[in-house]
Amino acid sequence: MAPYIQDLLERRPLRIDFPDSPSLEIEQAPPALDAASPDPQSTGSTVWRGGVRLAEVIASDADLRRRVVLGRRILELGSGTGVAGLACAALGAAAVLMTDLSVGLSERNLRRNNWVTTLNSCRVAVAVLRWGCPRWQLAGVLSEISADTIIGADLVYDQDRVDQLARTLVAAMAMMGRPDSIAVLGCYSHYEPIAYAALLARLYVLRSTKTHSGALGAKLPAWR
Questions:
Q1: Which CATH superfamily is domain 5-223 in?
Q2: Rounded CA gap, 105 and 89, in Å?
Q3: How far apart are CA 28 and CA 57, in angstroms?
Q4: Beta-carbon neighbour count of residue 137 at 10 Å?
Q5: pLDDT tens string 159-198
Q6: What Gene3D superfamilies would the database entry show (predicted)?
Q7: What residue segments make up the domains of the chain, in order of their start?
Q8: Measured between alpha carbons, how far is 41 from 80 in angstroms, rounded to an integer?
């Protein structure tokens, strides 16, 4: 069960507070298990701890915020509700592109929190992106904002998706081709340790920098 299920059941938006900006209000959607859906398990319809913790750690760690968010052009993988991408927009990113297989919920949350586009003149957009897609499709998505940073939180819950995610991440980092390009992936807990270990094993092409363990409990592996 998603950790913020009470907000969902009571049909109220989840509120994310920041010290120096307005609060985010994140809408969730009831799970709709549908084998024909792009997200058959509805993992992108609710807020997970990893996205909230990623936002909170970035907000509370000035050095991490400077390196990952301020003035950066951010591609978010597996945005779901859009909580992490919208947080980056609120915290000083120059541009944010939130991507997922299904983007209706992140689009609604962007409209609900449209102030993030005016507070710091951040350009925020939403796009469909399937992990493992042809390189030309990935290049087209990256070019929409000339991305230099990738973020993602609680991205994989089964081993079947690991190869697709790893190929997309490695290809995107190569396409960005900047010495200061960085990818930061947050996870609150390793719900599927086998899938997590498999993902780390497949990212050997990237140079790991460090794992930032925030006081709030998020684990943030970073690669360049």
A1: Vaccinia Virus protein VP39 (3.40.50.150)
A2: 17
A3: 22
A4: 12
A5: 677 788 888 888 888 898 788 888 887 765 555 565 556 6
A6: Vaccinia Virus protein VP39
A7: 5-223
A8: 12
